[in-house]
Amino acid sequence: MATTKDYSQYFVAPDLKAAKKRGKEEVQVLQFEQIPEDMRHVGKNKRYLIQTYGCQMNVHDSETIAGILEQMGYTPTEHEYDADIILLNTCAIRENAEDKVFGTLGRLKQLKLEKPDLILGVCGCMSQEESVVNRLLQSYQYVDLVFGTHNIHRLPYLLQNALYSKEMVVEVWSKEGDVIENMPKVRSDGLRAWVNIMYGCDKFCTYCIVPYTRGKERSRRPEDVLNEIRELARKGYQEVTLLGQNVNAYGKDFKDIDYRFGDLMDDVRKIGIPRVRFTTSHPRDFDDHLIEVLAKRGNLVEHIHLPVQSGSTEVLKLMARKYTREQYLELVRKIKQAIPDVVLTTDIIVGFPGETEEQFEETLSLVKEVEYDSAYTFIYSPREGTPAAKMKDDVPMEVKKERLQRLNEVVNEIARRKNEALRGQVVEVLVEGESKKNPDVLSGRTRTNKLVNFRGPKHLIGRFVHVRITEPQTWTLNGEWVEEPVAQVGV
Ligand code: SF4
What we know:
The chain has 491 residues and is an alpha/beta fold. It is built from 13 helices and 22 strands. The chain is globular and about 60 Å long. Its main location: cytoplasm.
C-alpha cells in the first residue's frame, strides 16, 4: 500500500490561479541576505551541476544559483557522477521541454540510488506548475528539492532543509513577485553578460504560461541596472544583453519616477561597453522615444527581435497579443525609417487553434513585407493552464506541419537573400571562440547578431576584428579576416 507522507513542514505548493492575480501591492526591492553562518562551508569539497533548459532568463537564473552555491563552498563539475548536488533549471514553454526534464529525472534515479547523499533538485518555470509538483510528489519521490522562480534567493535555507530532512522540500511561491538585489552570480561567459532589467509579464498572451510562472511585471531600479552595467564595463565585458520577458514595459510600474525603457537605453548608451542588446520586445509597448534613442546607435546595436506570432489580426486577437497586423507593420515602418539598416528577427506560431488557410497566408505576406533576417518558427503546442489550451483546435497536424514548411521556405529564402547582400562587405565581428564544428575556425557575431566563421589566430578570441564576407549562407556567414582596418558596413 502506498504511504502518504506528510510534507507540510517543508511544503509551499504552487497555484496557477493565485499566480494569475495582479493586485495593487507595491513591488518591494529587497536585498539578498548573507548566507547563514552554518551554511557558508556546507559545500566544502563538494560539487554542483546545474542543467539549464529554455530561455536566456533561465540561463541567467542559473548564473545566480551558481553564485549562491559557490558562496556556500560548492565548486562546479560537468559530470553527473561527480556531483553532490544536481539542479535541473526547467522550462515550461512547450510540452516537449517538460518531457525532457522528466526523462532526465528518470535517468538520474539510478545515480541517486548509488549515491543516496546526492541532492537532486528541480527549479525554474516547471516547478511553478501544480501539475508538475504533483507528478514529482507521486512518481519521483527521490527528488529532494523543488523551488520556484520566486524562491531562488531562499536556496541556502531550502538546501539546509533538504540536507537534513530526508523528505522532499517544496517551496514555490505563487506570488506576484518582488525584486531581489545583490544576488551573487557566476557569469558563464567572460565576454558577454546578461543583465535582468525587469521580471515577470502582465501580457497574458493566451498560449503562454510565463505570466503564471514568473509573476507580474516589475522593474529593477535604474540605478541598480546602470551600476551593474558599469561594473561589467570595468571588468572588461564587451557586450551586454538587457533581459526581460517584455523589456518594452520597463518602468511602467514605477510610481515615483517617469522613466521608461527608452530612458534606460539612453543612459546605457553613455556607458563604455561596446555593444548593448536587449530581448525580448513586445510590439505593443515599443514606443517612439525608444526608436529615437536606438537611432542614436553608438553601442546600441542595429538588431531588434520583434516577435509578431501571426500576420492575421483575427489570430492576434485570439492570442491576446493586443496589436493588429496594421499596427505591427506601422511600427516596423517607423523603425526602418529611423534605422534604415536595422536587422529584424521574429517569432512566429503556425497552426494556432482555428487558424484558417487565409489567416496563415496573411502571416506569409507579412513575413515577405517585413523581410526578417531570421525567424524562430513553431507549430502551436497547447500548455495546460492557459486559455488557448481550452480553445477548439480543428487544424489537423498534417496541415500545421505543411504550413510550417511553407513558412520556413519563405523565411529561409529571405534570410539567404539578406546574407547574400553582404558578399564582399567587411563587417565588425566580436570573436567568441572556436567554431563548434571546426576548432581551426573562429566564430563570432556582427552587431546585428549574425554568426560569422573565419580562419585566424586564436589570440583574436575576445577581440573585435574585421572580416570580409566571402561565402554567405542561409544562417551563417563565412569570411576572411582582414588584418588592416578598413571602412566597414554597420552590421
Ligand atoms: S508577452 Fe506574451 S508571449 Fe511574451 S512572456 Fe508575456 S505572455 Fe508570454
